[in-house]
Design brief:
12 helices; mainly alpha; globular; 0% strand; 299 residues
Length: 299
């Protein structure tokens, strides 16, 4: 088992390294084009985009507390803030379970069962995945008509109706408890309604749109992009982030998110410039996350 884990972690490291190698190689070989590109810095817009990212992060905690409430579990906002951001560090450890496990451990210390914490975290991901995927596909199809998606990508839209059926509370509760029984965990019961789950997905849709707005302002703070493309950026950010989340073979979507961002941004910028913007956005988001982690450590 230990050998298998080491092999898996090594494979993940190799995949991330390969992705970054090709992105960085493209950036390096075209460095003159990147360096002489028409960059301009607007620090006010950069600060506004940074503040929006912080605001959306707080809004995500509000939604998570709302989901917890459906299991009759309640956390003070200060404790929820601390748990959310400290456990988020687990995304950068190989394997996709560490963030959820960290969240379960920390919430259990606050008197909330691990089953409820894990279920709420997975439910939050499911309810955010659906609107993020819809937003990404919709905006790319209708606001980026010149960007040709592979035909097989449209088959992924079947996930949307299947997911909406699954989040129907009676089916969802049965599915969750079937998994809990298989894992020899306690069953959970929650008071969610179908309309309540749809409302939660609407809240996540709003969060994705504001994330996209922040990304647009970040891009505009370092180079010119016409405001008519703002709707495209909603889908570009959501699509890249979602694909990074489902890329289970890399921690934190490292490399995958940047690659998808660069590919989509190439509809508006030369590809090497798009790569530079994608890398810059990773630094921008990571700085916001680290600030929140520092604040969480002091709570």
């Amino acid at each position: 088992m230990k050998i298998n884990k080491k092999v898996r972690y090594l494979a993940q490291a190799i995949i991330v390294a390969v992705i970054f190698y090709f992105l960085v190689k493209n950036l390096y070989t075209n460095w003159l084009k990147v360096r002489t590109y028409e960059w301009h810095f607007n620090y006010i817009l950069l600060a506004i985009s940074f503040c929006i990212i912080l605001g959306v992060s707080i809004f995500m905690i509000v939604i998570w507390r709302h989901i917890l409430g459906q299991f009759n579990a309640h956390l003070p906002f200060k404790k929820a803030f601390k748990i959310w951001f400290l456990s988020s560090l687990g995304r950068y450890i190989p394997g996709k379970v560490w963030q959820v496990m960290g969240m379960a451990y920390l919430t259990n210390k606050e008197g909330i069962k691990a089953e409820i914490s894990i279920t709420s975290a997975l439910l939050a991901q499911a309810l955010s995945f659906i609107p993020g995927m819809i937003l990404g596909m919709f905006t790319i199809m209708f606001f980026m008509p010149d960007f040709q998606l592979p035909g097989w990508v449209y088959l992924s839209l079947i996930v949307v109706p299947v997911s909406i059926i699954i989040v129907y509370p009676p089916y969802l509760e049965k599915l969750i408890n079937m998994i809990n029984r298989a894992l020899k965990r306690s069953e959970v019961h929650f008071s969610a309604t179908f309309t309540g789950n749809l409302f939660t997905m609407f809240l996540y849709l709003c969060a994705w749109i504001v994330h996209g707005l922040a990304f647009f302002l970040f891009t505009r703070s370092i180079t010119f992009i016409d405001t008519s493309h703002i709707f495209s950026f909603f889908g570009i950010f959501a699509g890249a982030y979602i694909i990074g989340l489902i890329a289970v073979f890399v921690p934190g979507g490292l490399g995958v998110r940047e690659g998808i961002l660069a590919a989509l941004l190439s509809a508006f910028f030369p590809f090497p410039v798009a790569v530079a913007i994608a890398f810059g956005s990773r630094i921008w988001i990571t700085c916001a996350e680290l600030l929140c982690v520092v604040i969480a450590l002091r709570l």
